[in-house]
Amino acid sequence: MTKSRTDNLSWLAFSRFVTRRIVTVPRAIDRPRPIGLHSPTPLPDTGVRDRGVAIASPRRTQPGKRKPRKPRPGPTAPGVSLADIVASRLLMPPLKLFRKYKGKTLEATLLANGSVEFQGVPHASCSAAASTARSTITGQPMATNGWEFWQYVDGNGRKLTLADARNAYRTSGRGE
Questions:
Q1: pTM of the prediction?
Q2: In this predicted model, what pLDDT tens digit does every residue of 142-168 receive, in sequence order?
Q3: For a FRET experiment, which of 3, 29, 135, 146 has its CA 20 to 30 Å from that of 75?
């Protein structure tokens, strides 16, 4: 019994399919090494396995126990409001706040209750007012640190930020 030509062709097609499938089956890798996005060289082992499963850090000896976080030092530590600074009389309302942003000067007013008024609208925080002020220029709301954004002129004619007033409040011993 001889094989017909169509049998040989179908066997050939089948064998190519099987060969391709076998060749393209991925092999198990002992230690996968991530490749950098812009670099053809492997990055150091980050402890992450295939499929995004994280490996426990070797530094951690007791699972579930973490060191307590320390409060962040300096001007980013929470706890001081504009109302506190106004009450301490470091800033005397109504105080003109300003900022030159993208070639335009934005102006606001610090009110007696610690809120900031921009274009006739009072805002509960200096950051909300700064975000609104920047959005008048850019056309879209932008997260803004109002403590660093708003400036004022002190009694000596120096330009200071609200963060400077907050730091002065803290160093005076009233802020802790």
A1: 0.56
A2: 999 999 999 999 999 999 999 999 999
A3: 135
